[in-house]
Design goal:
single chain, alpha+beta, Glutaredoxin, seven-stranded mixed β-sheet, two-stranded antiparallel sheet, globular, metal-binding
Amino acid sequence: MRLLYTLTLAAGLFLSACSGNDAKLPIYGDREAVEKTVDGKVVIDTAYHTIPAFSFLNQDSVLITDKNFDNKIYIANFFFTHCPSICPTMQRNLLKVYEKYKGDQRIAFLSHSIDFKYDHPYILKAYANKLGVTNDQWQFVNGSKADIYGIANDYLVFAKEDSNVPGGYDHQGYLVIVDKEKRIRGAYDGTDSEQVDKLLKDLEILFNEYK
């Protein structure tokens, strides 16, 4: 599974490396051909993998759904507040992106806790405050085990409970770009500063797609 994600990431980064005003990011995930009727004619279109509807409780004990991200590009990731390994670096790197676009209504941030047992709203709130998040542009959410791990699969991110690893949870540190149509447009190693720089460049490419 890890190899599959690595190969997919490498392919996506290669495709997004093109330059020029017509540059576009790849679209990740499965796709299928579908028939549509346009002006009385049957045409073949492509249906892409999208993030499904979801509902989670945030750091303010407010229900956050996919509708909160309508008509926005957003960056999603998976973490837990007492993570002793990759999370601190990943979240500090994502904070740099947040600070660059703070107040920019085109973009939002969504961090899913995979610790469904401990990361209650007040824990997430303290974590967000300590990290330096000062507005509702970046949401920190949690939910049931089934819902959190189910949505991780939809983001194509590996996450599971594992008592054999430090902290009790195993997961990938990807920062996933989702476009306004809820399609995955990029995945970047949040612990790698060069990958985060690439994310910043690719965000600008995606912004230009919507001009």
